[in-house]
Amino acid sequence: NGKLNIFAGDPEKIISSILKNSNVKCVSWNRLYDPYSIKRDTIIKSIVTSSKIECDSHNGYLLNEPWNIKNKSGTFFKVFTPYWRHCDELLKLKDIKFKNTKISYANSKFKNEITIQDLNLTNKKEQWIKKIEKYWIPGESNAKLQLKKYISEKANNYSIGRDRPDKNLTSKLSPYLHFGEISVLEVYDKVNNEKKINPENKKKFLAELGWRDFSYNLLFHYPDMTQKPIQTKFNKFPWIKNAKNLSLWHNGKTGIPIVDAGMRQLYKTGWMHNRVRMIVGSFLTKNLLLHWKNGEEWFFDTLVDADVGSNSAGWQWISGCGADASPYFRIFNPILQGQKFDPDGDYVKEFVPELNNIPKKYIHNPWEMSMEDQKKYNFEIGTSYPLPIVDLKETRNRALSAFKTIS
After folding, report:
1. Rounded to whole angstroms, what are the CA distances from 308 to 102, 185, 286?
2. Can you state the angle between helices 257-269 and 243-250, rounded to 10 degrees?
3. How many CB atoms sit inside 10 A of residue 78's CB?
4. Of the ranges 90-104, 259-273, 278-292, which one carries the lowest mean pLDDT score?
């Protein structure tokens, strides 16, 4: 119930002006971990303390902050599994308490204050925003409701749901965590202490919270990882530039049903199931051999949970160039992935309606239908739905050869 004051410009100048022209007693914020935020906040801290005003920052974003987690040799963890094992043990020892503190917010009119409308945030994206608004209700109260629904309705199916895009069994808490609408410690605490969730589902879900932390652990120790591969040998990787294939991938018109369903789900809802994120990522970087930055930038622009740590860590993982990366030879076969994780084609049909009449046998590989079947189902491959833009087997072999050049 405070007042939201909005400013645009250089944060150092804005905060200096506020401190000079108001009776602020304390400046408080939650820490962030990307290079820009660390540099900015360090400068702001020095401005506040030199003004003889109380200054205090907190961890409101992670389970464990990067500088607090060290392995036995005193350095940081580069592999997720030992990292999370260590962090989870620390969290189990923590006495997590939640308290409501009454804060008196500075509530006066400040110099150079503007309105949300002045920022013109949505003008160019009005149509897209109207679509997105159908799927998300922002705010803390809805974040807490989503957590409650996840625990009561979905948590005991998570070990299956995390891989099944055709089932609505994931928490969808990632946007709320990204925007700070719910504390990750609260999510961890409530799930960890819920006796009705069986141990396997609990363990898998909490590990996903751990992966989010691990991403920031990597970003803190590899501050340029949003731009450069953690494994430097990938600086010599023979990526291809192909604007046409990139555009077809963006628009979900690759001719590979589960890839197209994922890319259309992303553009329609601002979100994509995690299993499908891995499939579309593997297709882009390995079958199309397009640079992982193409995917990282598109996701950052279109995801409602576009988190600087998780996004870049995820793309480096799937392309094989991260610290704890998917092995280069793991190239997801999107047909087999679709058949395994969307067995009836329900997910594909939801987002690729051109394939609604296609039988289950061909839903993930419609180009294999005979002419007779195409007539039977009133479907013409290449016209009703595009042919695959690449041959999956040929491009898999091409990717393996490309990886060998840098190994």
Report:
1. 31, 19, 23
2. 70
3. 17
4. 90-104
